[in-house]
Specification:
Serine Threonine Protein Phosphatase 5, Tetratricopeptide repeat, 75% helix, mainly alpha, 23 helices, 465 residues
Length: 465
């Protein structure tokens, strides 16, 4: 992202206004209001802007319907009606149908279609600050950070008195890990409007990124003072409290977010993580599964379930939970086949099951043959070897293939090599001839040498600054 110092940017933008003294922002026109709605300005905030600035148009039935389709809540419509009744005269609504459609698409999260409509409008109205703002936010929603930054910057140049532009720049700086610039831009927005809930929220995110948890929580509380029903702010509080170590309070914050927005899957997912950290695995599993009911491709929930089930499978040993954990890792592989971690996890689970089976079969044989004991490093007796191969052969082969794939994707994956070494030793217990057994044992030993080499090279590398 092309960055600028926010405070300097603000001074440059506001210099002309400062020389001529303070001025009242212009009244809101119908196109501007629709563009702000397309740009994700909350209904609560829009209501305040209408009250503070007034409007210069008469509300009609068609525009009311378009606003509702774009996500405006009843409070916005009511404020507009009240404002309309106080107008001695006013212009008719002049909002282009294309803009109303762009706002409707944005509300439906059809961002590419909204972007297309907004670019079409800007081709004939390139100096329209509100359209640049709306386009910037649609690009932000698509994570096109550089283009969004450019559009917000152009909007601020054309309309320097709009705090939301600076608060959105604060968010972009936060996402690009430029927390000091994020804080500066948020404070710029607050210097223009001390009651701006969004600016307080993004100030909180910047402070959170700097590890200033108490200051961040204070900023979030200020945001809730202006918009008490914002689930995103409660979600941000939850993230901050979890990092601070207050798991109970974090869970409360996430539940507040879910009370306000039951479809907030990120809050469900993070609540699952907190419940897991609190030692409440069954509750965590329920949260993760509720996420997958809404979004069956949600990787954080899939990985969370895989991790919890794996931990639960170990104590006491539960093969069904290992299988369920593996099923979620395989689901991750289907969604992102170039991630090395789930292949590794499948191999670890296969090894854990095969190792347990090997240990139990050796112990059972030794109990039945007191005078003919089999040590851990000895080959299995023929009848035990056959039973072990019949039950675990496919599993060991799957684990070996999975770990090889993990190493193929990440060639220096030493943990995967360590478990591949262990699975080769389990494979050695399944072959009949001494030569085959020695071959698998040598492959296992070679992997251990490779692991040592990787760890040594890693230790010799200079520390990153």
């Amino acid at each position: 992202m092309r960055k600028c110092l926010a405070s300097l940017f603000f001074l440059l933008m506001m210099a002309p206004a400062a020389s001529s003294g303070p001025s009242q922002p212009p009244t809101v026109d119908s196109s501007q209001l629709m563009a702000w709605l397309a740009g994700g300005v909350s209904s609560n905030r829009l209501s305040r802007l209408i009250k503070d600035r007034g409007i210069n148009f008469k509300l009609d039935r068609g525009y009311t319907k378009a606003l509702r389709s774009a996500g405006a809540n009843p409070a916005v419509i009511e404020v507009l009606r009240d404002s309309t009744t106080t107008l001695a005269a006013g212009m008719q609504v002049s909002c282009p149908p294309v803009l109303a459609k762009a706002a409707e698409f944005a509300h439906q999260k059809r961002y590419e279609e909204s972007e297309h409509q907004l670019r079409q409008l800007l081709r004939s109205d390139s100096k329209n600050a509100s359209l640049h703002f709306a386009l910037a936010d649609v690009l932000r929603q698509q994570e096109q950070w550089d283009e969004a930054f450019d559009e917000f910057t152009e909007s601020a140049r054309l309309m320097p008195d709009f705090p939301e532009t600076h608060s959105r720049l604060a968010y972009l700086f936060y996402r690009s890990e430029e927390s000091d610039n994020a804080i500066a831009e948020a404070r710029t927005a607050l210097s223009m409007d001390p009651r701006n809930a969004e600016a307080y929220r993004y100030l909180g995110l910047g402070l959170f990124a700097n590890g200033l948890y108490d200051a961040a929580l204070h900023a979030f509380e200020e945001s809730l003072g202006q918009e008490p029903e914002n689930p995103d702010t409660y979600y941000d509080i939850g993230i901050t409290l979890r990092d601070k170590g207050d798991l109970h309070a974090a869970a409360v914050a996430y539940r507040h977010a879910l009370r306000l927005n039951p479809q907030f899957w990120e809050a469900h997912s993070n609540l699952g993580i907190v419940l897991h950290d609190q030692g409440k695995p069954e509750e965590a599993i329920a949260e993760y599964k509720s996420v997958l009911e809404k979004d069956d491709k949600n990787l954080p929930a899939i990985d969370g379930l895989a991790s919890i089930l794996y931990q639960m499978a170990g104590q006491p040993f539960d093969p069904k939970k290992f299988d369920e954990s593996k099923r979620y890792h395989l689901q991750h592989i289907q969604l992102k086949p170039l991630d090395p971690q789930p292949y590794y996890s499948v191999g670890v689970i296969d090894w854990a099951m095969a190792y347990r089976g090997n240990t139990e079969m050796r112990a059972e044989y030794n109990r039945a043959h007191i005078n003919k004991q089999v040590k851990d490093a000895d080959p299995l007796p023929p009848d035990v070897r056959k039973a072990y191969t019949d039950k675990y052969g496919t599993m060991v082969d799957e684990g070996i293939a999975s770990l090889k794939k993990s190493i193929e994707v990440k060639p220096d994956y030493d943990d995967a090599m360590t478990y591949l070494n262990l699975l080769y030793r389990r494979k050695a217990d399944m072959v009949e001839s001494a030569d085959e057994r020695n071959n698998y044992t040598k492959q296992a030993d070679d992997l251990l040498d490779k692991v040592k080499e990787i760890k040594q090279k890693r230790a010799e590398q200079p520390p990153t600054v």
